[in-house]
Amino acid sequence: MSLVRAERRRFFKRRLTRWVFPIGLLLLVTIASILFAFHSKPTAEARAKGETAAEAMYQEQVRYYEQYKRECGEKCPEDGWTGPQRSDFRAEDFMPPSFNFKEMYGQLFLVWAAIMAMVAFLLGASFVGAEWASGSMMNLLTWRPKRMKVLGTKLAVMLVSVAALSVLALGVWTGILWAAGELRGTTEGLTPGVWQSFGLTALRGLGMILAFAALGFGLASIGRHTGLALGAALGVVIVGQVGLSILFQMVRVPFWEQYLVPIHIFAWMNKEMKLTDWSSPETVCDNAGNCNPPELLITWQDSGSMALGLIAVVLVLAFWQMRRRDIS
Fold first, then answer.
1. Among 185, 178, 144, 81, which Cα is nearest to 322's?
2. Which of the listed residues 128, 262, 286, 315 has the most CB atoms within 10 Å of its CB?
3. Do 29 and 64 reside in the same domain of the chain?
């Protein structure tokens, strides 16, 4: 039996794979089903009620505006405010929510990517960590003594398998959301450009999932135990995210949010993330005289480069240790 086939069989036969992936898939199905249940197809009756409610709200705001003008009289500020505008009160805002596939599907990619990234981290870490802890790695290296090839094959098989599972989960996720659009909303406006945008976002999501899988694999390989990867992840969340964010706010570090992992996840999935330093005493003014606090733009290239560098360091260290340390 080839090494690739053996590793692929080992990956899908593991109990953690059989439990963690279905749990992640069930979570996605549950979220999509809730979205399906809480949306409804817009009907003529619902639109008529929405128009009535919008008109009533508009008339109410007009009465408040007229009362305000009577009370303040000549003291009313002359800021060019003309009062409520009928166009600001849409019937859609007073109707039961309907699922617009074009508008909502792209925003929901982050849900799929985040859940599958957690699944991938656990699968990647346990795939190599459990074999070190149980002694299976030593038996495998007796059969195949080429350490680098063994570890590299494990990593490649794990990444391909995680990618396949993630695409399967995306297919189920997309199918339920498409049904929500067809039966509880609309699927109109899906041009080739929109589908291309969806495809690129899905590729970034898949890249994030594989990055978490590789990170878990590398950390568990370095520590030769799944617990090291899980401990490192817990440390990053508690110390690196919660603790440092509190410290940075206390000492007023500019743009302290840029050191938080979720910010870079949002930037990666949404192509960019703009941060505002509200604590800064300085302001930035444009040619029109509008002054605002300093801003920092984080692009998906910035976040991707940082993640790629971190994962490269972890994997290089894992392979270096595999080559240098004794197997015992």
1. 144
2. 128
3. no
Same domain, 60 and 161: no
Helices (H) and strands (E) in the chain, counts: 12, 6
Residues 124 and 168 in one domain: yes
Domain count, the chain: 2
Q: Which domain does 264 fall in, by range?
A: 3-41+99-324
CA angle 175, 177, 182 (to 5 degrees): 95
Q: How many Å apart are CA 130 and CA 226, to the nearest integer?
A: 6
C-alpha dist (Å) from residue 193 to 51, 163, 197, 198:
33, 25, 6, 9
Q: What are phi and psi of 242, to 5 degrees?
A: -70, -50
Token readout for 170 is 């995306």
Amino acid at 215: L
CB 212 within 8 A of CB 307: no
Low-confidence ranges of the chain (pLDDT < 70): 1, 73-81, 130, 132-145, 225-228, 235-240, 280-281, 283-290, 324-328
